[in-house]
Amino acid sequence: MKNNRALLLSIFLHGLLVASLIVGFTFNDTKMVFASTQVQPVNAVFIDAQKIADQKRQQQAEAQARRDQQLKQERARQERARQERLRKEKVAREQKAKEEADRKKREQERRREQERKRLEQAAKEEAEFQRRVKEEREKQLQFERELADQLKAEQQAIQAAQQQRVMTELQKYRSLIMQTIYQNLYIDDSAKSKECILSVKLASDGLVIDTRIIEGDPALCQAARTAVLRPATLPVSSDPAVFEQMKTIRLTVKPQ
Predict the structure, then answer these.
(1) Which residue has the higher pLDDT, 160 or 216?
(2) What CATH number has the domain spanning 158-253?
(3) pTM (2 decimals)?
(4) What is the DSSP letter of 184?
(5) How far is CA 120 from the centre of its chain?
(6) How far is residue 150's CA from residue 142's CA, in Å, rounded to a whole number?
């Protein structure tokens, strides 16, 4: 701006100088003298105008150079800004990618932890289920053992009672048979205090199927065998369990 103002002031001053010369040439009587004496200043005016044009061109060149430099600097600034923007975008992308990778990693870890807890819980539930099954099985086995023991005890009690009943019945019918034998036994006094053991096989209706002398006094044994066979039947129990014990009965005949 300062160079432009100086150029304009120089042009204005030279214009005034030219105008004054023209006026002086018209109204002065000594025109030729002045004309001859003013030739050198006119030439100076043209020289100054050339210099001014050169200065203007130089100033324009310098201004263009400055504009080019400014444009270059602006382009450099824009390039730096673009590079900075690209760098920031790259950093942002890398940060976003890192955050996404971290998120995926955390998600995977969360899922793995969930799966681990699920499997752990499933294992606990399975272990608890197996424990309850085992406990229930042991309780069932214990119950079955206790029930078996109870049934066995009851069965034994029943069998004992049955055995007692059978033995009582057997003793009863043994006594009845012996009573029948003694009623049909005919011996003299010499046979008293002697002994004979017989084996008697009976039918279910009391019929004597067989009689065998096992040992004893021969005379007493013969009389005892006859006493067994004399009645049509001997007393027997109608209870199969009792009869089973007495269908082959061992008798000791010992008259008093």
Answers:
(1) 216
(2) 3.30.1150.10
(3) 0.44
(4) T
(5) 5
(6) 12
